[in-house]
Amino acid sequence: GNSVTQMEGPVTLSEEAFLTINCTYTATGYPSLFWYVQYPGEGLQLLLKATKADDKGSNKGFEATYRKETTSFHLEKGSVQVSDSAVYFCALSRQGAQKLVFGQGTRLTINP
Amino acid sequence: DTAVSQTPKYLVTQMGNDKSIKCEQNLGHDTMYWYKQDSKKFLKIMFSYNNKELIINETVPNRFSPKSPDKAHLNLHINSLELGDSAVYFCASSQDSRGGTDTQYFGPGTRLTVL
User: Fold this and answer.
1) Which residues pair with B53 in a beta bridge?
2) Distance between CA A20 and CA A105 in Å, rounded?
3) Which residues of chain B neighbour A107 with C-beta distances below 8 Å?
4) Pairing state between β A3-6 and A56-59
5) Which of B38, B106, B44 is nearest to A2 (CA)?
6) pLDDT, tens digit, for every residue of B53-100?
7) Among A36, A43, A98, whose Cβ lies nearest the Cβ of B98?
């Protein structure tokens, strides 16, 4: 079946540190891959996405590259801010499936 | 100008009661969804509708009954509430989910607490 595995949290970093949150997936066919972010007390917002192999999604300083050979979509940011503290979800969607399959989420806390 | 809205935001009720959560989207999207987020933040699809037609029913107990009166609304009715139904329920919508590439837009969530 289709599944997404994210690195275990919580992750705590200092401001301006480099961030990587690992995400790997299992899927038939060629899924689209997404990162969603959930700020405290809010719903999910799309952070970035990639719909085919080697695509790079980017937004707000975050990047992730769709790596078919390693079935990965790791999230990176060069210099995190306190305002990046949130829960990050990696997700996939397959053609015709009409749903998102989420990883377990990674809670990120950035200390000043 | 809320894109996907849900009511109520919080819902506290007793076991055995029946309750409804409403969702509306003003994005003109064709597809709407309900997701459940448990206490460990894990998110799982419950239902999806495309143009008022049920597409996915993901092994959800039949105490949960979605209803889509038109493509802008998808409500969730829950009968005989149980303690395990306590969760945050998110509504979402997308333009067309069949290609798998469309972004889903989420509502703010409804936190349901069953006592």
Assistant:
1) B50
2) 14
3) 41
4) unpaired
5) B44
6) 888 888 789 999 999 999 899 999 999 999 999 999 999 999 876 667
7) A98
Residue range B29-40: mean pLDDT, rounded: 93
Contact between residue B65 and residue B14 where contact means Cβ atoms under 8 Å apart:
no
> Do the chains contact at A98 and B90, CB–CB below 8 Å?
no
Q: For residue A108, give both structure tokens.
A: 């990120």
Q: Are β-strands A62-65 and A75-77 bridged in parallel, bridged antiparallel, or unpaired?
A: antiparallel
Q: Is the dihedral of CA A1, A108, A70, A67 positive or negative?
A: positive
Nearest chain A residue to B36 by CA distance is A102
Interface test with B, best of A32, A44, A107 (most B CBs within 10 A): A44
Strands A11-14 and A106-111: parallel
- Please enumerate in sequence order all residues whose Cβ is within 8 A of that of A81, keeping only pairs 6 or more positions apart, or say none: A15, A16, A110
Instruction: Give, for A106, the enclosing helix (H) or strand (E).
Output: strand A106-111
CA angle A56, B56, A74 (to 5 degrees): 20
Amino acid identity, position B95: Q
pLDDT tens sequence across A26-44: 998 889 999 999 998 888 9
